[in-house]
């Protein structure tokens, strides 16, 4: 339906990447909730954080289209790394020839052909030098770090919340 790469190994990796994304997003939500212990404040910060992550992640806005002074934020976005992993998983080793009868080297949509995976990566701003494994390791590190910080917040900040309620 979506014309994704039909190889079973790529599909299994896709499912693993989705699971890691869910784990990391849950960890961020848990951390934000543990810091504020207030639904409205947590919801507001989570919305701002996720919107910033999505906008700088590379899917909606390519890094070359972002102002230079704000490009560094993309490296703080876990979505940037998971997006790169999805792109590498989908297009690694792929080759897209020109449509039959095309001798100009340009498709009807204005793209050059033939097109390789590296062409797609450079067009979409994907950093392929650390590979899928490196990107996934970074996203997992984000998830584990946010879970750990959530634990610390619940352990130490929650004491002050309990003491305020008793008084």
From TrEMBL:
It is a multi-pass membrane protein. Its main location: membrane. Keywords: ATP-binding, Membrane, Nucleotide-binding, Transmembrane, Transmembrane helix, Transport. InterPro entries: ABC2_TM, ABCG_transporters. GO terms for molecular function: ABC-type transporter activity; ATP binding. Residues 1-91 form the ABC-2 type transporter transmembrane domain. One of its GO terms (cellular component) is plasma membrane. The chain crosses the membrane at residues 12-37, 44-61, 136-157. Signal peptide: none annotated. Pfam families: ABC2_membrane (PF01061). This is ABC transporter, ATP-binding protein isoform 1. It comes from Galdieria sulphuraria (Red alga).
């Amino acid at each position: 339906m979506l014309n994704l790469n039909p190889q079973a190994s790529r599909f299994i990796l896709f499912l693993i990447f989705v699971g890691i994304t869910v784990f990391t997003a849950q960890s961020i939500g848990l951390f934000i909730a543990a810091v504020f212990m207030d639904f409205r404040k947590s919801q507001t910060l989570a919305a701002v954080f996720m919107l910033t992550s999505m906008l700088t992640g590379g899917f909606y806005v390519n890094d070359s289209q972002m102002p230079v002074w704000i490009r560094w934020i993309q490296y703080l976005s876990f979505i940037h790394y998971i997006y790169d992993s999805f792109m590498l998983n989908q297009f690694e080793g792929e080759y897209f020839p020109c449509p039959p009868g095309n001798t100009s080297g340009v498709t009807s949509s204005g793209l050059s052909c033939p097109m390789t995976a590296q062409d797609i990566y450079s067009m979409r701003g994907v950093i392929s030098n650390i590979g899928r494994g490196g990107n996934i390791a970074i996203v997992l590190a984000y998830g584990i770090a946010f879970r750990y910080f959530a634990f610390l917040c619940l352990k130490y900040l929650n004491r002050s919340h309990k003491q305020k309620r008793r008084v």
